[in-house]
């Protein structure tokens, strides 16, 4: 049995509706209880403290107990630590994501200070990512202007690419993407839209940013440099192997989990994208899906994966109200809402196989509505 059989597409859901919705943002908002929009600094800090405590406890366990495990149990213990610690670091990153949206508290200065410190420790330039992510929210689903995962068009696919479309190449591509996509996005704007010149998240004069944001990009750079200095000092004092096992490997897992979630939320055969003739903000905000990873990972990720549609509509709702808000808007959204509980490996493989380029349906009136296609798509 090959990978295509294991990861078959028989469980695919029907497409999300792509026509102009019969409801407005105000209609959706009215369905949400008013208290869901309330941000409590103390409650948000309690989640942050809990997440930090778990990460510190896991680090203590890795330092104290894994070294005394008999061989080969110590070699099994380390990867387990890497994955669990990386998952909780991803949960911490999600809270920083809330800080960037000011969904953490009513005090932007508190959000910015905490976000700068914690995101820098997680190798993410806080202000730079905050501003590029804001533009993603402003242009979700736009072929021309979305900042993350805009689908390539058929004409941009090289002629030889279809000859490399096989299960081995797909699996290798998935693994490479998971561990390097986030650094490449920050450094070279890979997996983002094209700008008229080189763009990255560390150049204050990058076309990603406007004049009012450039100083804060420099502050983000300073935060990353400070974190790198601390990491260099720790690596020098304890050795690179110690640093890799304690921090760098979990960080790579964190990158992989972040990319897994953000990629799958925006890359699915069932969700549309729009060109300039059809795109409008509400239709674009609905161009995503929720993902159900099961009770443990859902909780570790603060349910951000199961409430992503609501988050795109109302990004200032804190995560501890987002599930209630999601349940409230489902009857309003109807067929414009979708959640996928397909196992992560199957979702990733399906995206690698079927989400190669985007084009409109033949004969469709909505020529500006684009859908993902596989290489072997027959019109």
TrEMBL record:
- Ranges for domain Fatty acid desaturase N-terminal come to 19-58
Q: Which residues form the Fatty acid desaturase domain?
A: 80-337
State the GO CC annotations.
membrane
Q: Which family does it belong to?
A: Belongs to the fatty acid desaturase type 1 family.
Q: Which cell locations does it reside in?
A: Membrane
Q: Which UniProt keywords apply?
A: Fatty acid biosynthesis, Fatty acid metabolism, Lipid biosynthesis, Lipid metabolism, Membrane, Oxidoreductase, Transmembrane, Transmembrane helix
InterPro entries for the chain: FA_desaturase_dom, FAS_N, Fatty_acid_desaturase
Name of this protein: Fatty acid desaturase domain-containing protein
Q: What is the lineage of its organism?
A: Eukaryota, Viridiplantae, Streptophyta, Embryophyta, Tracheophyta
GO molecular function annotations of the record? oxidoreductase activity, acting on paired donors, with oxidation of a pair of donors resulting in the reduction of molecular oxygen to two molecules of water
PANTHER family referenced in this protein's UniProt entry, alphabetically: OMEGA-6 FATTY ACID DESATURASE, CHLOROPLASTIC
